Amino acid sequence: MKHARVAYDGLIQEATVNGDGVQLLDGRLVTEDEVVWLPPVQPNTIFALGLNYADHAKELSFSAVQEEPLVFFKGPNTLIGHKGKTVRPNDVTFMHYECELAVVLGKQGKHIQQAEAYDYVRGYTVANDYAIRDYLENYYRPNLRVKNRDGCTPIGPWLVDKEDVHDPMNLTLRTYINGKKTQDGTTADMLLSIPQLIEYLSSFMTLYPGDIILTGTPKGSVDTVVGDEVVTEIEGVGRLVNTVVGEEVLQNS
C-alpha cells in the first residue's frame, strides 16, 4: 500500500494512493493534481549516507571501500514534498541532485542484528538529496550548508509498505532533468546494505519509528539550474518531481 500525507481544502490529511486517485482519511477520493503533497512521514532522526555507492565514490575520486558508513544528520527543515520547489542560491555554481532510496523505520530498537534488520523497517520512499558543492569544505565532515538548507531534500510522493517491495537491495534508480535521463543505477551497488546500516546505527544509539535513512546515490550527479524539472524515480517505489527555483521566488512569495 502507498501511504501519503497531503493538504486538501486547508486540512492536512493522511491518505492512501491507488489507481483511482488519492483516498483521504475522511473518505473523499480526489485526484493527484488536487492535493498538495507533503513529505509522506513526519520524521524523527534523519540519517544521510555519503559515498555509499562505489561508482559515485570513484566519480568523486574517493576510495570505493568503506569499513564504516560516512553518515551525518539532516534537519526536518530540509524535507519538502512531491512537486515542491527547491531554491538554488544565487551565488553557487554547482548544485546537483542525488536520487536515493529512503528507508523509514517503524519499530524501536537497539543492537539490531543484520538478520533481523528488516523487521524494524516500515517501508520505503524516494528522496532527492540535493547537494551544493560550492559550500563543501571537507568530504569527510559534510558541511551543514551543503545538505541542510530549507527544502533541499524532496521526498515522496508516498511511503510504500515494505511488504510491497520484494528486494530493496535490487531496485533501479533513475534521474531525469527536463525529460533527459542523467542518472541510472541500482541499489545492488550500495557499499553498505540496508541491514548493515541498521546494525551499525543501532550499535550505539536507539532507533525509533519515523527515523529515516537516506542510503546514498549512484554516479551521474550533474548540475541543475533555475527552471529545471528534476524527476527522481525508484523502481517499485515511486516517481518524485521537483523544480529548481531562484531565491527571488521566496523573496516575492
TrEMBL record:
- What GO molecular functions are on record for this protein? 5-carboxymethyl-2-hydroxymuconate delta-isomerase activity; 5-oxopent-3-ene-1,2,5-tricarboxylate decarboxylase activity; metal ion binding
Which keywords label this protein? Isomerase, Metal-binding
InterPro entries this protein is in? Fumarylacetoacetase-like_C, Fumarylacetoacetase_C_sf, HPA_isomer/decarb_C
The parts of the chain that form a coiled coil are none
Protein's organism: Virgibacillus pantothenticus
In terms of NCBIfam families, this protein maps to: HpaG-C-term
The entry's protein name is 2-hydroxyhepta-2,4-diene-1,7-dioate isomerase
* Keyword Metal-binding among record annotations: yes
Q: What range(s) does the Fumarylacetoacetase-like C-terminal domain occupy?
A: 45-245
